[in-house]
Hints:
Layout: H1 2-5, H2 13-37, E1 48-52, E2 60-65, E3 68-73, E4 87-91, E5 97-101
Antiparallel strand pairs: 1-2, 2-3, 4-5
Keywords: Membrane, Transmembrane, Transmembrane helix
Protein name: DUF2149 domain-containing protein
Organism: Steroidobacter gossypii
Amino acid sequence: MMRFLEHDEADDPILSLVNLIDLFLVVIGILLIVIVRNPLNPFSSTNVVVIENPGEADQRMIVKQGEELRRYEAGDEIGEGEGVKAGVTYKLADGRLIYVPEAGAAGALEP
């Protein structure tokens, strides 16, 4: 009769449920750490630039400024946009850059 009064903890189904809850808490904690360490996390106010597939045809750039996210994708054309050629830049042997404006270009110095 004393055998029925002893409680065997290994057969308790509640302990299995408690272990599952503990496992889920650990997984949730790991996911929160991953979110906080992500440079694009919504709780960070820093400015970040993320480049995906650099140098490839499908290169993408994500710019985060404060709470605003902008996504840029590489186009098929090089130098998209409006503008005119304003001059030429030359790199000297010592590493200096020299800019030579073209005659008639906007902002060019007239001789």
